[in-house]
Write a structure and sequence with these properties.
Layout lengths: L1 H22 L11 H17 L3 E5 L6 E6 L8 E7 L19 E3 L2 E3 L7 H18 L5 E7 L9 H7 L8 E4 L11 E6 L1 E10 L5 E2 L10 H10 L23 H6 L5 H8 L12 H6 L5 E7 L9 E2 L2 E10 L5 H15 L5 E10 L2 E2 L5 H14 L4 E4 L6 H9 L3 E3 L15 E3 H21 L4
Parallel strand pairs: 3-6, 3-7, 7-17, 8-16
Antiparallel strand pairs: 1-2, 2-6, 4-5, 5-18, 8-15, 9-13, 9-14, 10-12, 11-13
The structure holds ligand BES and manganese (II) ion (MN) (2 copies).
Amino acid sequence: MSDVNEYLQANEQRFRDELFDFLRIPSVSARSEHTADVRAAAEWLADRMREIGLDVSIHDTPGHPIVLGEWRGAGAGAPTVLVYGHYDVQPAEPLDLWTSPPFEPTVRDGRIYARGAVDDKGQLYLHVKALETLMRATGSLPINIIVIAEGEEEVGSTNLLPFVEQHAERLAADAVVISDTSMIAPGLPTICASLRGLAYFEVNVVGPSSDLHSGSYGGAVPNPATALARIIASLHDGNGHITIDGFYDDVRVPPDYREQMRTLPFDEETFRAETGSSTLSGEKGYTTPERLWIRPTCEVNGLLSGYTGEGAKTVLPSRAMAKISCRLVPDQDPATIERLFAEHIRKVTPEGVRVDVRNLHGGKPWRGRLQGPLYAAAARALEAGWGREPIYAGEGGSIPIVPEFERILGAPALLVGFGLPGANMHAPNEWFSVENYGKGIRAITVLWDELARNGSNA
Ligand code: BES
Ligand code: MN
Ligand code: MN
């Protein structure tokens, strides 16, 4: 292991410089003007993976490319691990709220500030550097490795699912390992116990054929903005409970789970302060971690209607639009929720306006089984790095491909992330701790060693 440590130390600066090159590529998957940048990030990553000795291929999809790297030199007796990550990032706007520009990575106070620093380029690239370290310091890898990196996670992973289905044999693995989540607090290594799923909708309300003078017509013609406000208000009752018929029917919580959650070091006040909100609120009868990890939501993500420019303009808008998403928990199914949501909207839409519900994208929720040699190896690797056992905590976010990997490949997923609370994922001033980038690389090298020793049938 000392060869590994020496190599890590000797290459620390270069590892950081390379990540900075990766972060400079604005691979924003949601924006068509960045299509070429997304491809450039895929190619950049493929080149780096090739340099360290993986067999690399780039697979075009109807959307952004998938990068695949393979190394099977450990032989049939050794475990095979599939490492997944995403090289696409969220849009960086609003740009004026960034202290340093989003695609010019900058270190301040031990943090790398850039869009994608923690979500997920930094965490994906630390896996590549862990592989390089083992390859160069020991001459080979102790396990067989497949790296799969996609460019569409932030837009729903729609083209990755068919790819995994079509290449299930090639992707066959004993375990799936992902770093795209966070630690519950600095210094507390964390294994993710669950992810929420997602069902995302666009709701369009259409009234009069054009905007109307709100004096000449207001009061006598149905207002789509008011109609949409009523629709939105109908989604929750006064206790923050979702009122869509049948919405909670498939919600399952394992026995004792709520008890266990109460023992986690979740700091409510730190969490509140991070948000800048004066108070926390949510569904009555549940704690904040429960609201985030084991309860579903129905949230407005965007709202548009009428005149929103400078000054006043007295119009009765002709249309109104909302983007609404539901975070889902086991065993809710996005397809069922899509049906129930559309039925609810139809039922509550006031007379005189038309409503149209479009499904944008979805993903199933996931709960880890947290047992077996894979999890034991992870616990030892994290303990080696942080000097303490990992904590098992939920995440409120979604990674749609995770339950699909488990289903299609029949292998358990391990989510071990090195982000920190308040890292501004998807927000201005996203950052990744310099220390965790280095410690993450080292922990992953230990993980592969541990797994090689005790991990057949991970
Ligand atoms: N890395 C996140 C998932 C995540 C979020 C993990 C928060 C831990 C905490 C991932 O990149 C993400 O943002 N996923 C999207 C999925 C969606 C676009 C289908 C999400 O959760 O909104
Ligand atoms: Mn991510
Ligand atoms: Mn994300």
